């Protein structure tokens, strides 16, 4: 039975490249930096929410901050999903891998049913 890393490598799309033992993806440096910056802001939001709870801030104010963080995280997911479809999914379909449609369907269902 393959371990999780071996399974991920086996699913590597034709558009991905490898450099030594390190897997490289379609993401360019600008995309990687953009995603990282967004996640850093979200991380700060979550720390702020924790602090608000510890300080006993009014529940509605905390809930508003949680909604804001969820929205920001959804934005990251949408951006990543769009790139995934335009690159990985497209390349796998061109290569004749029809199974990627089922994988994408499951992924989108998880994103939609997050609440």
UniProtKB/TrEMBL annotation:
Residues 1-27 are annotated as: Disordered. Signal peptide: none annotated. One of its GO terms (molecular function) is metal ion binding. Residues 1-10 have a biased composition (Basic and acidic residues). GO terms for biological process: negative regulation of DNA-templated transcription. It comes from the Bacteria. InterPro entries: Metal_Tscrpt_repr (IPR003735), Metal_Tscrpt_repr_sf (IPR038390). This is Repressor CsoR of the copZA operon. It comes from Desulfocucumis palustris.
């Amino acid at each position: 039975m393959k371990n999780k890393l071996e399974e991920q490598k086996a699913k590597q799309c034709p558009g991905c490249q490898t450099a030594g033992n390190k897997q490289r993806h379609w993401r360019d440096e600008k995309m990687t930096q953009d995603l990282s910056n967004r996640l850093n802001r979200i991380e700060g939001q979550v720390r702020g929410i924790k602090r608000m709870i510890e300080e006993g801030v009014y529940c509605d104010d905390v809930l508003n901050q949680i909604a804001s963080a969820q929205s920001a995280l959804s934005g990251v997911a949408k951006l990543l999903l769009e790139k995934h479809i335009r690159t990985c999914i497209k390349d796998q379909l061109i290569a004749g891998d029809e199974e990627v449609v089922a994988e994408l369907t499951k992924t989108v269902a998880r994103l939609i049913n997050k609440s």
